[in-house]
Amino acid sequence: MYYKIINILSILIFLFAFSFVGGQEKEESTESLKLKLSQSKSEKQKVDLMNEIASVLRYSQIGKGLEYAEKALESADKISYKEGSAKSLYNIGALYYYKGDYKLALEYYNHSKKIYNQLKNKKAASNIESAIGSVYFSLGQYGKALESYNSALRQYEADHNLVGIAQVKDNIGTL
């Protein structure tokens, strides 16, 4: 009994320490990105950095992440940087998804996917299609979720994207 308690306490301490270090690394990463952003002279690079910051903040500070993603979208549109706009729209969609606003998540994901399709970036478009499936899953619209997942799966298979295939098959299995 004594050893079980020691083992459980050891595991809990390890998990606590691991989660603290992970959060600290994200914070350091965000600060590092912010420093690069303040030093950047290229508008395109600023858009990419703001998008990267928004992506890192997705799980911890949704409001701040939205600020960076929206600012990145505004800047990308100003300089006609389509790839940056598409990434910003994707980030905004993901942030709304994690916020639980699935209607807005779908709106931004679909807009992003449209741009990626125009740019013929099949990998990004199929990633968004999978994300759209997750939104439908969260809404309880399982038929639409399966359609989106299968669409993403076909593209992943055509591209021999093994990671994408594994992830979307996991989503289908969960569905």
3D structure, described in words:
With 175 residues, the chain is an all-alpha fold. It has two domains: 1-109, Serine Threonine Protein Phosphatase 5, Tetratricopeptide repeat (Alpha Horseshoe), CATH 1.25.40; 121-175. The protein has eight helices and no strands. It has helices at 2-39, 43-57, 62-78, 82-99, 102-118, 122-139, 142-159, 162-174. Helix 2 packs antiparallel against helix 3 (62-78), helix 4 (82-99) runs antiparallel to helix 5 and helix 7 (142-159) packs antiparallel against helix 8. The longest helix has 38 residues, at 2-39. The chain is globular and about 45 Å long. The chain starts with a helix and ends with a helix.
Largest sheet: none
Helix and strand element order: HHHHHHHH
Helix content: over 70%
- Using the coordinates shown, work out and report the CATH topology of the largest domain: Serine Threonine Protein Phosphatase 5, Tetratricopeptide repeat
Number of strands: 0
Instruction: Give the termini distance in whole angstroms.
Output: 40 Å
How many helices? 8
- CATH class category name of the largest domain: Mainly Alpha
The number of domains: 2
SS strand fraction: under 5%
Average pLDDT level: 86
The low-confidence parts are 2-25
Instruction: Specify the structural class.
Output: mainly alpha
Shape from CA axes? globular
Rg of Cα set: 19 Å
CATH architecture of the largest domain: Alpha Horseshoe
Q: What is the CATH homology-level superfamily of the largest domain? A: Tetratricopeptide repeat domain
